[in-house]
Design brief:
Length: about 280
């Protein structure tokens, strides 16, 4: 039985003065969706990216970071794993060295921005499968079921669409600045449309007894919900948190920032457009 408006939770008499009361000052969250600058080859379809350490790209990254700095984030949260309770990323201590040697977006944008703003720490919020935890993206099970049950045309069509889109983006990046190349990864309507087309189409893969497409959606939601839960642990009322994420996570992270009590979503696009001028 699901929760409904008819459920009433008993409150203590002094609930209004309880320390557990909802914070009155919202936490603002800006989600910067990205492709991987140093692609690890771990995605279903992987982009081809040029050298982000090249002088041209470094200049463009500087312009992007300068624009993001104008928003004045009080915390920077990166798609990387870190230990509770602080979630501080140890690699940040080596940021001066890493900025010269690592093209990773965590370093080039997250660490660079943290240094510019004088932050003593940046934070990691990623959630990955470990021992005793589920596979948060069980595509192999989806594919195996599709092969065995004549549903591969659904999967092949979706993968073909993703590959075509990725190739289109690869070609466009050659003439775009870094900021311009991120437009499609931060436009809310585009993000939602691509997410829904891919993930919700996978729900069709199943037969009622076994539903691997629906399970993939559930586990993907779980991963993103856990990620945002960590962002909630990192943030304090009144914070402005810049969340840097692969754009596949951006629809759900935006969703939680818009809907979780105590949070507000700040749109990224104006800052990308300013950086591209």
């Amino acid at each position: 039985m699901g929760l409904s408006a008819s459920v009433v939770v008993a409150q203590p008499a002094d609930a209004e003065t309880s320390d557990a009361a909802e914070p009155t000052e919202a936490i603002q969250v800006m989600v910067l969706g990205l492709y991987h600058f140093a692609n690890p080859g771990a995605d279903m379809v992987n982009s081809q990216v040029d050298d982000m350490l090249a002088p041209r790209r470094q200049q463009e990254i500087e312009a992007l970071v300068e624009s993001l700095a104008d928003w004045g984030p009080t915390k920077i949260a990166l798609e990387d794993e870190a230990s509770a309770p602080t979630f501080e990323l140890e690699g940040y201590a080596r940021s001066e060295e890493l900025l010269k040697t690592s093209p990773n977006e965590t370093v080039q944008i997250g660490y660079r921005l943290g240094r510019r703003l004088g932050h003593k720490a940046v934070y990691g919020y990623d959630e990955r499968s470990g021992e005793g935890e589920p596979d948060y993206f069980p595509m192999e099970k989806v594919q195996a079921f599709a092969v065995e049950n004549g549903q591969m045309p659904i999967l092949e069509k979706l993968i073909g669409e993703v590959q075509a889109y990725s190739s289109e983006q690869d070609a466009e990046r050659e003439t775009q600045s870094v900021a311009e190349s991120l437009y499609a990864h931060n436009d809310g309507a585009q993000l939602s449309a691509r997410h829904d087309r891919l993930y919700y189409s996978l729900i069709r893969i199943g037969d009622g007894e076994s539903q691997p497409g629906a399970e993939l959606n559930a586990y993907w939601y779980m991963r993103n919900a856990k990620m945002f839960g960590k962002i909630d642990m990192i943030a304090e009322p009144g914070d402005r948190v810049l969340v840097i994420a692969g754009s596949g996570h951006a629809p759900w992270l935006r969703h939680f920032a818009q809907r979780m009590p105590g949070f507000e979503l700040v749109e990224t696009m104006p800052y990308l457009e300013r950086a591209a001028r």
